[in-house]
Write a structure and sequence with these properties.
The chain is an alpha+beta fold. The chain is built from 6 helices and 10 strands, in the order E-E-E-E-H-E-E-H-E-H-E-H-H-E-E-H. It has 2 domains: about 10-145, Nucleoside Triphosphate Pyrophosphohydrolase; about 150-230, Winged helix-like DNA-binding domain superfamily/Winged helix DNA-binding domain (Arc Repressor Mutant, subunit A, Orthogonal Bundle), CATH 1.10.10.10.
């Protein structure tokens, strides 16, 4: 006789908030749900954890099935377990957020899921409590971005100061003093300037940079100086 015979049993799933940045907009990758309930509506990418699968492994599998990639930044941020969150059966969801460079991976999406990128500000209403998950994931991302170089996971290996500025404005939903932001950012020696320019945006062009990861780790928390406290 099992010692757990009197314990309740329920399902455990993973849901993944997949963020991307196309150089202009912070976006989220959504799929059409292919089963009832809420079949055909927009949903986060998720699935149930296998019998012999760790939650992190399941979350990574979900992203790989959708995008074809596994070398990604992914982080668990919350557990959602309201008893009535799934109308069919009691289901607890372990939520993760993932950061992807859209321009690098957009051609590897598995179209079997009818996936599409949406600007975060214009995303459609999602099933169940998925809108709450997205809101919570964004809050966690804002906090992390003030202390760690996680937003650089959304950028290509080389990028411009205007691209970084737009990315921070998108994530925090604010307007930055662009010249002041660039001056402070460069003063921290977080970036390495490259001897080439991006000339599609203007005739003069903007120099490319790459992240100096060593300096960023030594200046932990430096970005908090750039973002007003209420937004972090």
């Amino acid at each position: 006789m099992s010692i757990y015979s009197g314990a309740p049993h329920f399902l455990v799933a993973v849901d993944n908030i997949i963020f991307g940045f196309d150089g202009e907009k912070l976006k989220i990758l959504l799929v059409h749900r292919h089963i009832e309930p809420e079949k055909g509506k927009w949903s986060l990418m998720g699935g149930f954890i296998g019998q012999n699968e760790r939650p992190d492994t399941a979350a990574l599998r979900v992203v790989r099935e959708l995008t074809g990639i596994s070398d990604i930044y992914m982080e668990h941020f919350e557990v959602f377990g309201e008893p009535q969150r799934d109308p069919i059966e009691r289901t607890i969801s372990i939520a993760y957020f993932t950061l992807i460079d859209i321009n690098k991976y957009q051609h590897q999406i598995n179209h079997a899921y009818s996936a599409a990128w949406f600007p975060l500000a214009d995303a459609p209403q999602l099933i169940f409590d998925h809108d709450e998950m997205v809101k919570s994931a964004l809050q966690k991302l804002r906090y992390k971005a003030a202390l760690h170089p996680v937003l650089f996971e959304l950028l290509p290996e080389k990028f411009t100061i205007p691209q970084i500025t737009i990315l921070y404005e998108e994530v925090y939903g604010i307007q930055l003093d662009k010249r002041n932001f660039a001056r402070k950012l460069l003063s921290l020696e977080l970036l390495i300037k490259l001897n080439e320019k991006e000339k599609e945006s203007s005739k003069k062009g903007a120099f490319y940079y790459r992240l100096n990861e060593k300096n960023y780790k030594e200046k932990f928390g430096a970005m908090t100086k750039f973002i007003p406290f209420p937004y972090v």
